[in-house]
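pinging the channel bc i need a second pair of eyes. not urgent but kinda urgent?? the chain im working w is below, pasted from the shared doc
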Amino acid sequence: MPVHPQNTICWFEIPVSDLDRSVAFYNAVLDTSLKIDTNGPNPMAVFPCEDPATGISGHLYPGTPSETGSTVHLVASDSLDATRKRVEAAGGKAESPDIEIPAGTFFYARDPDGNSIGFFQFAG
């Protein structure tokens, strides 16, 4: 039976070469105030949203910008192991082990065109 989550996209991330410069850029362009968060494996600057429990947001992180653009994280329809197997069977490539953060667990993958995507499973 197909799974239909409330939101297909749950997170996005934008790799940046200079976190402070990029925070200043996005704060100015969006007239907002990104929050620095050091709870995960890397420091990140989180885009605010009205209700973090139901809103979709993302972050900037220090990293090498992808040749194919930013990474969009999609809600896994079931276990990450099953999702990883489907990624490989459908012609994509899983590129990381599971990565645990306070909100849940995810892994990075590439689709058949080389786009960077993450598959996320919420904690709890």
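so The domain at 9-122 is CATH 3.10.180.10 (2,3-Dihydroxybiphenyl 1,2-Dioxygenase; domain 1). and The first strand starts at residue 9 and ends at 16. — does that match what u expected or am i reading it wrong
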